[in-house]
Amino acid sequence: MKLEVTELGPVQRAVKIEVPADDVTKRFDEAYADLNRQVRIPGFRPGRAPRSLLEQRYAKSVEEDVLRSIIPDYYQRAMKEAGFTPVSVDIPPLERIKIKKGLPLVFTTTVEIKPTFELREYKGITLKQDKRSITDEELDKAMQVIRQQHAQIEILMADRGMAEDDYAQLHVEMLEGSTPVSGAAPENHLVRVGDKTPVLGVALDEALLGKKKGDVVDVPQDYPAEYADARLAGKTVTIRAQVQEVKTRVLPELDDEFAKDLGDYKTLDELREKVKAQLEQGLQRDVEETYKDACMKRLVDLHHFDVPESLVQRELEAMIRGAQEQQRRMTWAEAPGQAPLDTRKLREEFLPKAKERVKLGLVLDAIAEKEGITVIEADVEQECRMMARGLKIDPAEVMKILASGGRETVDDFKSRILADKALQFVYQKAIIQM
Known about the structure:
The structure is a single chain. It is built from eleven helices and 14 strands. It has helices at about 20-40, 50-80, 135-150, 205-210, 255-260, 270-300, 310-330, 345-370, 375-390, 395-405, 405-430; strands spanning about 1-10, 10-20, 85-90, 105-115, 125, 150-155, 165-175, 180, 185-190, 200, 200-205, 215-220, 235-250, 430. The strands form four sheets. Strands 6, 7, 8, 9, 12 and 13 form a six-stranded antiparallel sheet that branches. Strands 1-2-4-3 form a four-stranded antiparallel sheet, sandwiched between helices. A two-stranded parallel ribbon has the order 5-14. Strand 1 and strand 2 form a beta hairpin. Helix 5 (about 255-260) crosses helix 6 and helix 9 (about 375-390) packs across helix 10.
C-alpha cells in the first residue's frame, strides 16, 4: 500500500491511498469464485460457469462488492500506518471510485483527526473560596415554604371579592364571537390569584381581582397568523371564565404541634435543625458545582488548540435538539403564541458554547488517559440508577433505552461518565484559597 498525507489544516488531512494491483486482482478473483458458487446458470453445473459469462452478467455488482470490501480494509490500514485517531471521515461515494482488475486502486479520503496538544497543569488549580452559608433568613423562608405546603384550602366564607393568594375554581371556555371555538371543549381550572398561571394561554389574575362566586370575566386573546394550532391562527378569541367557587388558604401555626404532625419531631426547634441540615447539604452540592464550573473554565482557558469542526457541529446539533425538545415539552398554554425556534439564530447563539464543550471534552479525555481513569460496568450501572431516580422509572428500563440506541449511544454515554470522572479528579486536586 502507498500512502500520501496532505495537511489541509490543524486537524484535517487528505489521505491518498493506493491499493496494489495484485491485491485488486486477488479480490476480483475471490469475488467471482464466490459468485460462481452461488449463482445458477442454465447449461452449467454449480461452480462451472465460465468467468467471461459471469463478467458479462455481473461485472457491475462484483465491482461494487470488491469496493465495499477493499476500501474499509485499506482505510483502517492507512489510519494505523499514519497514526491518526479520526473523528470523522469523508470517503467519496462508490460510484465515483473507479476500479479495474490488474490496475492499482487509488482513492482519497478527507479525515478530521483528534488534535494533539500538550496538557497544561491541571492539578492544583486555584479556586476562590465560596463562603456561602445558610443564614437565619434563608432558614425562616424555608420554614415558611413548609408552612405554605401544608396549608388547608377552604371555601372563602367572608363576603368580599377575591384578593391575591385566593384561589378561584373556574369553568373556562374559548369563544369566537359568541360561538365556542370548534374542537375546544370547556375546561375546569383551579388557579391561585397572583401566580399568573396561564389558563388556555391567558393569565386571568387581574380580571379576577375583586370578583365573587358566580361572576364571569371575559379576556380577549390574539393569536398570530403563524400560530401552530390552525383553529386559532390569526384569530382573536375570548377566554370566558365563570367563578364557580372562591377559596382561601389557611396556614397552620409554626409551633411544636405542627412539627409533631410532620414526623418524628418533639419540638419546632428539632424540625428547624433538620431543615437546616437539608439546606446545608443542598448548598454543599451547589458549592461543589460552582467549583467544578470554575475548574472547567480554567481548563478551557489553559489550552489553546483547534477543535475538529465535525465534533463542533455534532455538539451544536445536540444543543439545538435539546432546545427544540424543551419547547415541545411546553404546552401551548405555557407558551401562548410562541413561534418555532429559529434554527439559524440558535446556531449563532450556541456555536461559541459548542466549541468550548468540545475543547473541554478533549482535554478531559486527555486527562483521563494520562491518569488511567476508566469507565467500568459499575459506573454505568450507578449512572443508570441516578437517571432512573430522576425519571422515576426502573433502572433496567434506562439500560434498555440506552441499549436500543445502539453502539454509538452507549459509547457517548460512557464518554460522558468518563468526562465526569476526569473532572472530579481535577476538582479533588484543586486548591481552595482560604
